[in-house]
Amino acid sequence: MVGNIPAGSVRVFGKRYDKGFTLVELMVTVAVAGIIAAIAAPSFSKMISHNRLVSSGNEMIAGLQIARTEAISRRQATTFCPSSDGASCSNTVGSQWIVLSTVNGAPTVLRSVAANPKVSVKTSANVTGGNTRITFTPSGFVQVGAKSSGTISMCAADLTGQNAVDISAAVVRITSARREAGANCSAPGDI
């Protein structure tokens, strides 16, 4: 207490006022904050799903670009392929892909690319079965088995509208495009 005024109080024109919030004011503030959070939450979850999809697509594009760059700079074929163990190519398309090159006669993983587990990965008919490898020649051209193109699709089933990113590697270019794949995340077509 300072003089006859208790701590936390203010005297204005002879009347005493207490500083702080009442319990009612605090509860109203908490209720308003809760309502705003409830309204914003669905849009945040959609934004997070969209960012997962875009991020996974960018990882795949980066993997393909690295494979092409390494093929040109090393002057030897470099492969971008799915992998179940992170060390060798497999024939099963999954969320993990690797960039593989031969160094001193041994296959060497140059980069590992993993899509978010909540994003499904599908491939076009050219990149299925025994043809899951996308190989870049020393000149930077694409070979997918006997074909010269292939498409990898990243899809988020929990998004509506354009919920897929198709990444196409064809002859000398890598492109990506958004499309509507539906809730079942349909496989992409060949280009």
UniProtKB/TrEMBL annotation:
InterPro entries: N_methyl_site, Pilin-like, T2SS_GspH. GO terms for biological process: protein secretion by the type II secretion system. The keyword Cell inner membrane applies. It holds the Pfam family N_methyl. The chain crosses the membrane at residues 20-41. It is found in: Cell inner membrane. Residues 58-169 form the General secretion pathway GspH domain. SUPFAM superfamilies: Pili subunits (SSF54523). Belongs to the GSP H family. This is Type II secretion system protein H.
